[in-house]
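Please, structure for the following, as tokens.
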Amino acid sequence: MYFSFLVSFFFITSLYALPFNFIKKETDILNAPTLLVIGGIHGNEPGSYFAAALLSRYYQIKEGNLWIVPDLNRPSIQQNDRGINGDMNRKFAYIDPNDADIQTVQEIQKIITQKQVGLILNLHDGHGFYRKEHLNTIFNPNAWGQTCVIDQGTLDTEHPYGNLNDIASKVSRELNNGLIEDHHFFDVRNTNTRFDDEAMKHSLTYFAVSNNKPAFAIETSKNLPTLHHKVFYQLYAIECYMKLMGIKYERAFELNLNVIQKLLTNHEFLTINNDIYLNLNDLKNRLSFIPLQSERNEFKFFHPLGSVQKNQQTYDLYIGNQKISTLVPSYHPKEFCAEPIQIIVDGKTRSIPLATDFFADADFKVINNDRNTRVNIIGFTKKGVSDEGNLNVKLNDLDSKYSIDTAHKSYRIEFYQENRFCGMILVHFK
């Protein structure tokens, strides 16, 4: 039986939700191998978390199981900081009970040690290009970029994927068959953690191998020219590990730089409190008078790296480390209005639910036969009119400074009963 835990659902990042997203794509939870992919333990390594995001959005698993945590250290990702509470990847042997990262570390430790997990990949971007001999400050033995990192050659006890050095070597050879540039060469870096690297004893991968879980770090170079270069190599490496484990997959795109670059610009959409819809592509960098509740607002992003940061008087929207927009709220109590809404679009009547959108070529008219409900088309004014329902509205009737997008084609239609907010619909003019 095929189970898909990611078909078309939202990633809820409300201010009281769990600290990271956990996505399961499974076909056989009892017998098939399970790969756990973790991105974003360091917030200033975007190749890791944007690769995990594309993996969760565009890959379908046909045989085997894939678990993905794309945004492990979400607060640090927002700030593009290695670790706003210190290095999270040095907290797996011991973490202070008062450490702000303790919930995140303990939750991912529980996932790592689940019996079903067969192999773990921890994604990173590292400085320089690893070479066994010193060439210069970029190419040298102290660099981490373009490596498959292991903590030791083999696990201490028998395991189907216990020969870490052999597996990492096979993956490196496969990656080197598809390099964009020759100097992007991959190699295996064995930290020999138990004997040679005291700091790495506190890492996620060493915690895993200490619990008899094969674990590898994929390190793409921070010196690669673009984000899509990093994501390309991360996805390429993940595919190598999936093939090695017998996990069969399909992806909805061709693995090349041009396609990845386009996919990275698609920020999808967001709903708030199930009554507001915002398309996050081409959104203005600041939107005012957004009708929110005074507390416990629920933000649901379709993008797995979507998150919100509440400030004193505003809400910042993020996709990964990219701030998309700032919302300036106008607080209203919630009301429930009858839906779907009847709207005449280019002469044809349509039924449209709240918290969705529609496209118009020429004009639209919101049908409102409820005396208690007021229609407010943001950017539209007509002298003497307080309810803007039952009026034909064209693009030229709207003040462009009230559009939500930089192209001035998208506008909010809001519904109220007195001061109580019912919901919103977006109209996009083609």
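Confidence is low (pLDDT under 50) at residues 1-9. Residues 4 and 404 are 34 Å apart (CA to CA).
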